[in-house]
Design brief:
The protein is built from 29 helices and 14 strands. By secondary structure, it is of the alpha/beta class.
Length: about 750
Amino acid sequence: MKKYLIGFFYSLPVQLVFLHFRRYQILLLFWIILFATISGHFLKLYGADSLMLAPEYLGRVNALSSAFAGFAVGTYIMSWNITTFILHSRHIKFLATTAQPFLKYCINNAIIPLIFLLCYLFFAIQYQVTEELSSPLEILALISGFLGGFILSLAIAFGYFFGTDKKIYRKMATDFTTAHEKYERASRMIKNSKIEKGEMRIDWFLSATFGLRKPRNIKHYSHEFLNSVFKRHHLEAVKAVFIALGALILLGLFAENRLFQIPAAASITLFFTILIAVAGALSLFLSSWSVLVVIIIYLLVNWMFQGHIIDPRNKSYGLNYKNIKERPNYNKDSLLQLIKTGAETDSLQFISILNNWKAKQHEEKPVMFILDVSGGGNRSAAFTMNVLTRLDTLTKGKFFSQCALITGASGGMIGAAYFRELYLEKLQGKINSLQQKKFIDNICTDLLNPVFSSLVARDMIGPLKRFELDGDSYIRDRGYAFEQKLNANTKGSLNKKLVDYKKPEQDAAIPLMIFNTAITRDGRKMLMASTPVRFMMQARKTQNNLSGYDIDCLDFQSFFAKQNPENLRFLTALRMNATFPFVLPNILMPANPEFDVMDGGLRDNFGHETSLRFLDIFKDWLKKNTARVVLVEVRDRPLEDWAHPYEVNSIIGLITKPMFLLQNNWFNLQDYYQKDEVNYQLAAFDSTLVKTTFSYESLPKTIPASLSFHLTAAEKKGIASSLNNTYNQKTFHIIDSLAHTFQ
């Protein structure tokens, strides 16, 4: 028994696993990320597991989309084999004396890839059953597609290397014959030899036919011969890597065509493929100089960026970036001047809009609804759309006709903007009903796959292609991909400019929308609307405050008055409000100095900060002209978050807790102080202001929908079902009663 255990321990497959853990452990990081992702332990909250386990192509999860994922996984495994073959060949020189050394290396290096493959299939089947609600036949088709793509990838790779093996052996036929003859003569004279320095002890390895074979003693082969064999194989391996890199660059070039928008799972896996391959190529050609060369490349690229030779930063589509001489100055004096010259004018303009709103109501003192929607990716967009559709049915259209203002962040604003556009189209006679299931399906459609595909194929690997819009040139990056996919999902209905909503908003045909986005330079908030809102740039002054007032907001329309702000693409305004860190790029703004903006949820995720200031500024008009103001909150999380506390149960967690404490409790902190702000405003209005809330809560014993731009079938079903819980049903009844109370 001991003999077999020793033989097993010193077999090449087992020793290669140990070697991976002893040397170049950084390469194992990619495997760890992949294993953690498919098992739901890495970025699950943001939908990373759904990208890998339910790959989507052309808007569908099917055998073809799974085949792309399988092909990418196969390519990744081959890249892993190529890179580690290059790095570890000096420890297993005996393979150079065999036919097809790379094939034998792949067979013996298959333990980690085989474990991953089995885990992937297990988790994919489980995911399809529990999350996508797929039938056994559909699951069989998906698994068949994945395995088909995987096998095709390996067949192409091994076909390539079989050809290179033949070519190498043709070129080195004489060298092989001479080396083998020397080996045969020497092996008859000396039976045993010590393992040379750097080599591993290998008692057995698997042959090309999966049989057990003992390795040859290589002591009598010259080092020049062995190194020559490996060098030729290494060069052929690197060629294969560059072929894969070229394929990824081509995807970036033609990514505008939907046929080339491969699943995000394939894009991410191919990106890992390139990273591993580059590491191998650097090690082969540069050896110990690799780190220095990487540093030099970074310094060169950074110099080019600072010298404006390259500029990969994203911009606001429609805004004028060419008018450099008249860019506004971003400083205290400039902002104070905006308030001084325009705050009163803007507030009077808004009072005119409020008067128009009142004129359209049927009561002397009507009920006004103000809608605050929270950020939260597609789950918030879907929940908001479901709530507004149900409210429209329940109140027979009165809720939206009495709604004067919508504000909030990210996904909630996307859902509300889409419903508002559909409401406008109904008023214009373009559609007959808002209660069509296809509208909810549209807003639930995936946005994440094209973003990640573009991130890999365009932003990181491919050349930066550009597009023209109204005379300005912009980069086609993942921000562009997001807008294009959102436009396609909503059937082009949101493909407008900010100015296109100015008249219907001023006529009070539709509610006003105020978007907010966070300025990363100082944390201030930039407010975007079709009409200037300079009165919102600082809190309303009162005689009791003797400390003065700082400016905490920037009005987009007036600040960028000479950059054609009304020309801003409405889809861009939605994206600026929903720029989730890393997923979407920050947006550069043309000011002096330049600054960039990101997700509005960083500053005001629930929309209360904006709506409460609006209420405070127009409090006198509202008290005089309305019977009641109802602040309706639509949020993508429970009102009380006791179910998901931030807990640590490891030493690493204990050490890193201070760093991640704020990140994990960010929305809770906003919730706490904004609840207080709401209560203060409720007290100031007495009984004329009330607040009510719709909250998405997952079904019992289920995980909440992920905070991402992708929803599974189970998550879509759970979001729709959450409207029927006791709390939300009570809120529907309250709003229906308020909408009809003062008729």
